[in-house]
Design brief:
The chain is of the alpha/beta class and about 270 residues long. The protein has one domain: Rossmann fold, CATH 3.40.50.1000. The protein contains nine helices and seven strands, in the order βαααααβαββαβαβαβ.
Length: about 270
């Protein structure tokens, strides 16, 4: 309309909300969720699928310690050595809605929407590989993501991990993002299910645990942190959007993935 005033530009984000992915935004392991389509395309054998499912069951029952996570990391990186990156991306994109939508927690999507409405940037930090994490993060409405990066040569995975978004590295990533964007960490929030993300939770001013494993539940109770239980996966019913950008300071690509575990906790109001 002639003479109409231009729409005001949106205010820049005031803080960040950092989300783990597996068992926090989705029910289960993002990487293992794609085991069947990977098998259908000949990337992995039936035996490997069954073995991965068994590993997932063990983690759900017992929780994941650092030694177990490292063992699984080595197993999965060996498994995907030589895979073609373009094929992996195509499989994930083609099966994203079929595989992921039934796993997304309704409570997580509501929380993400609340943070965005409050003018906060939503960042997914995950030990899973970016080819899996990036489209899921876009699907649930995150602003950006950061994930594990695996070495690539001539379009194929080399089996080497270039960047592992896990443990202390997640906390370092949150600090780098906050510094680059001008956020006070005291104003930022973090959500995770796993004791391995304790450094990330300690780095922000408002930590919250979601479906925590036994060790993280103990820490949360001792420190008085809020504990949430997410139980209701929901079909999003949205069209696939272009992937969210990756944090340039660390960046990366990779299919390497680790698993979260634990189904404990009780929902409390957001602080």
């Amino acid at each position: 309309m002639p003479g109409a005033a231009p729409a005001p530009l949106p205010a820049p984000p005031t803080a960040a909300a950092f989300f783990d992915l597996d068992k926090t935004i989705i029910a289960g392991s993002s990487a293992l969720a794609f085991s069947r389509p990977f098998r259908r395309q000949g990337l992995i054998s039936r035996r490997a699928v069954l073995r991965s499912g068994y590993a997932q069951l063990l983690l759900v029952l017992s929780g994941a310690d650092a030694a177990t996570m490292e063992q699984l990391r080595r197993r999965i990186t060996v498994l995907c050595t030589g895979w073609e990156v373009a094929q992996v991306r195509a499989i994930v994109e083609e099966t994203l809605h079929e595989i992921v939508e039934p796993l997304v927690y309704a409570e997580a999507t509501e929380l993400i929407a609340e943070h965005r409405a409050a003018g906060e940037e939503v960042v997914v930090l995950s030990a899973s590989g970016q080819e899996v994490v990036e489209p899921i993060a876009a699907l649930v409405g995150a602003d950006r993501c950061l994930a594990t990066r695996m070495g690539v040569e001539d379009g194929h995975y080399t089996g080497e991990i270039e960047y592992y978004c896990y443990g202390e590295a997640k906390a370092a990533a949150a600090r780098d993002i906050a510094a680059a964007r001008g956020y006070r960490l005291a104003d930022c929030r973090a959500y995770s299910d796993s004791i391995t993300d304790l450094p990330l939770l300690e780095a922000v001013g408002h930590p919250t645990v979601v479906n925590p494993d036994k060790a993280l539940r103990r820490e949360a109770l001792a420190r008085g942190w809020p504990i949430l239980t997410f139980t209701a996966p929901v079909a999003l019913g949205v069209r696939f959007r272009p992937p969210v950008p990756v944090v340039a300071a660390v960046g990366g690509v990779g299919i390497a993935a680790l698993l979260g575990a634990g189904w404990y906790g009780r929902r409390r109001p957001r602080p």
